[in-house]
Structures are given as structure tokens and as C-alpha cells.
Design a protein that fits this description.
- Helix 2 (120-134) runs antiparallel to helix 3 (140-161).
- The chain is α+β, with helices and mostly antiparallel strands and 162 residues long.
- The strands form two sheets. Strands 2-1-9-8-5 form a five-stranded mixed beta sheet, with no helix packed on it. Strands 4-3-6-7-10 form a five-stranded antiparallel beta sheet.
- It has helices at residues 3-15, 120-134, 140-161; strands at residues 31-37, 40-48, 50-55, 58-62, 69-73, 76-83, 86-92, 95-99, 104-109, 112-114.
- It contains three helices and ten strands.
């Protein structure tokens, strides 16, 4: 038996996963959000009520005291509900969300833009161009890039149509 297998077997009780339990009294009821891009910080340790995001495992809403996890983000909307009915929506091209046991959420995205910055007409025109290139007679590299563009434009179009 190798050393790794023996080490895992010795630690197994410590590595056991359990269901979430009720938060202890006095634990914060706010989620502390840090949302960063390579060139910009959108939120830095800001208390928010909830964050909704599109992960590869499915859409999820994150509140304070959420079960810790790491999620890969799909191209889609990240909605930050700051308080009451004040919310901001961002379209992200992808990235990761890390939910920590201390009610902090770190979102690292490659690109993000406020959903209100997009025009449905411009997105539809860009989608048509990308589909034309993806189905055209261009090089394989051009077709592959256009297919990625099609996926992103379709996700933006879907988000704007809601």
C-alpha cells in the first residue's frame, strides 16, 4: 500500500463531509463579497445580502453561512443583491466562485460587465456575425474562435431577454 493511501485512511474521519447545520448564534447574517477581475475590483469585502450565479453545477443562490464550496462559473449573470431590492447584475465570461466557511465569497472572473451596458440589438448583430463565421469557410482557428463567441453572445442574449 502506498504512503498516500495510508495517509488518507488515517485522516478519513477528519476529511468526512457532513450536511450543513444551523449557524451558531452571533454568526454574521451578511455575506462578505469580494468580486475581482484581472484589471479591476468590483467589490472588496463588501457586505451583501445574497449573490446569484451561474455555475457549471447549476444556478445557485448564495447567502451567509452557505456550505463551503468552489464553483466554476459559466458564461452568465452574477446578480449581487446588496440590500432589500437593490441589486446589480453583471455578465461574466467565466471564472471561479469560492465560498468560505466564514461567510465570505470570492469571485474571480476573467471578464465582467454590468448587464445594463449591453444593447440587445448590438448583441443580436454580433451573434449573427459570429454564427456566419462559425458556419463559413474560414480557417479552423477562426471557426473555433467564432464558436466561443456564439456561446457567449447567446448567453448575453438570454440574460437580456429575461
Amino acid at each position: 500500500m502506498n504512503v498516500f493511501a495510508r495517509s488518507v485512511r488515517a485522516l478519513r474521519p477528519a476529511l468526512a463531509r457532513t450536511y450543513a447545520s444551523e449557524a451558531p448564534a452571533g454568526v454574521a447574517d451578511k455575506l462578505r463579497l469580494t468580486f475581482v477581475l484581472p484589471h479591476k475590483t468590483l467589490y472588496k469585502a463588501t457586505d451583501v445580502q445574497q449573490v446569484n450565479l451561474a455555475a457549471t453545477s447549476g444556478d445557485m443562490g448564495i447567502l451567509a453561512n452557505h456550505v463551503p464550496t468552489i464553483e466554476q462559473l459559466n458564461p452568465g449573470v452574477v446578480e449581487v443583491i446588496e440590500a432589500g431590492d437593490v441589486s446589480k447584475k453583471f455578465f461574466v465570461s467565466g471564472g471561479f466562485a469560492i465560498i468560505n466557511p466564514d461567510s465570505t465569497l470570492n469571485i474571480n472572473a476573467v471578464e465582467a460587465a454590468a448587464l445594463e451596458d449591453f444593447s440587445l440589438e448590438n448583441v443580436q448583430a454580433a451573434l449573427a456575425d459570429a454564427q456566419r463565421i462559425a458556419n463559413g469557410a474560414g480557417s479552423e482557428e477562426e471557426k473555433a474562435a467564432a464558436k466561443v463567441e456564439v456561446e457567449v453572445y447567446e448567453a448575453i442574449q438570454h440574460a437580456l431577454s429575461k
